[in-house]
Amino acid sequence: MSPPSNSPEIGRILRSNTAGFAVGCRVNQLTAPSFGALVRAQPVDGQEAIYGLIYDFHIDDDQLIQRLVMTENPRPNVIEDQRQNRMLPLEMSVLTVGYLVEGSLRQGFPPRPPLNLDPVHLVVDEGELRRFSDQLGYFRLILRAPAGRVPVDQLLVAHIRQVYESRGEDRLWAMTAVREVVELLRTNYDLLIPTLEALSAALPDLPTLA
Amino acid sequence: MTLEFEQLMGEVELMARLAGERQVVRDTRLDQIERLLRERAADFAAVDRYVTHVRRTVLQATQFRPFNGAAFPLAADAALDETRAVRPGELPDEATLIGVDGSQIVPDRHAAFVYYLINIGAIIFHHGRATAPEPVAFPVLRYPEPDELNNLRFGDGAGVAVERDMAEIGRLAELAERVKQPDVPLLALMDQRLLYVPIGELGPKFKEEAIRSWQENMNRIRRAGGWLAGLIDRPGKSSVITLLRGLMPDFNPDTPDDLGEWDGLVDAELFERLLAPGERSAVFVDLSHANERFAGVSRYNEMCFFYLNTGDDGHPNIARVDLPRWVGENPAAVQAVQALLLDQCRILGRYPYILARADEIAVVGRQDQQELEFRIARMMDRHDVAAAPTAKFTSKEWVRSGKRRLDQP
Fold first, then answer.
1. What pLDDT is recorded for position B406?
2. For residue B82, is pLDDT > 90?
3. How far is A94 from chain B (nearest CA, A)?
4. What is the rounded average pLDDT of the residues A52-61?
5. Where are the alpha helices (DSSP H) in chain A?
6. What's the mean per-residue pLDDT of chain B?
7. Looking at the complex, does the CB of residue B353 fall below 8 Å from at least one CB of chain A?
8. What's this model's pTM, rounded to 2 decimal places?
9. Which listed residue, of A207, B97, B220, B251, carries a Cα 20 to 30 Å from A191's Cα?
10. In sequence order, what are the beta bridge partners of B203?
């Protein structure tokens, strides 16, 4: 299996480690990715791929931006100048949840992290998304992410909602995902309750959550 | 070794006390100048007498006499204390603005390779339209030719500065010609004086050539149908004060630029008292040897200027705006330039947005320089050219690379 070629590029690797990576992008690339989305870092040789979930966006500023913020109603052409022409760092943080090696999709940490400047694509192909999310072992990696750095409950909820919609409002998958969350968090009541409440708000049509 | 601050604190205290006393003296003298300005604001005959005297005895004298410069109103009926705000309808609905700036990596004989770099940054701003401005950069690398074994031009920082100035106005003219649209006004803006005088130890022929080239580029902007302006923030000239001194009863006709006890005071301090936020002064003509030369080549390029308060209530900021006569004698153009400049200043507060952005595009930072020199070294290596910086250069790099105290990690 090789990754589909129709996924939009959302940026390139700034830095990485085994557990995650940071992606730098231009402002006009920022419309597609969202918090909780599944992305794929695609090393240049194309044989391997590393999957992850976006858990943070970081948009930097500088003194010029700070000055413009203080003015009343910045003009559209000045805003466009800042966004299109000035190279302000715009960064996404991604939690690694799986990888592709020798055509086989696996959930867990990859043998090697992606390298600087490897392109990163948003996973939009329904087949690819289904293949990755059919197994829910990666939820365990999400829950083990450092809570101070990764908003674990919000990330889970956002991701489950997005996959549910991308799979054509797949209620069966969503119910399985919720059961997996309950199973993984049954000893952590403090996290389970707010996560279920948030899931209930995000997916009100699911019978057992309503 | 860090500075011994304790040894200096007595001097620092004295310095602050004297600065306070100096401010009192300054204010007293400015009060006197302001009173004189109000009293003689419409004394057109006295102004005319002073200008005629300076032209006859100094500027057109057969033997050269140094003269620091003065100014007089361009319009014969303009009062010296005239102020003018932007009126409704004077800001063009649409305009094209071009801001330009330049920077350079100066030649360094201690560096590994002989070169210098000039980088011109510009931005084309479409006033009145929601489209993004267009930034452009023009980097130029200069290096010796194969038979140029004498590195003379690579040890000449002043020559490089002049070359950068020429490149700035040259690119500005080129862009003005390229983007000027019929019926849409165009303002080409620099962040320096337009009455160009090359500075440094340069040959007279080189200076003349630079001034000629500067004026030719001014002509290109005029012929393209654009307006040209140069904005000088915190200007240091005393041209109007010199004129006022010439109207004093104790004026000495033998020394028409002698400011006496007003020496050290500048026009900006005077106009800070006169101009409300957004207001400009009358348009003045620069009265100097340099401007005589400019006007002698082309009357269109005779230099005029006005002072403009780009600040706000309680925080005045006086800038001088240089305009060639072809702009200065067109009242509608002057009003549009004032309105467009203020509009630009409002984006960031007190300084035109396009000049701030042009500077950002042009500036070559330390990191860029290191990256360029790394690439040069790599390419030289490919061509088997070996070189190394001098020991002095290397040592300075080490000691200036940042220091930390031993008790800090």
1. 47
2. yes
3. 29
4. 94
5. 63-70, 76-80, 126-133, 138-143, 152-166, 171-184, 189-202
6. 92
7. yes
8. 0.83
9. A207
10. none
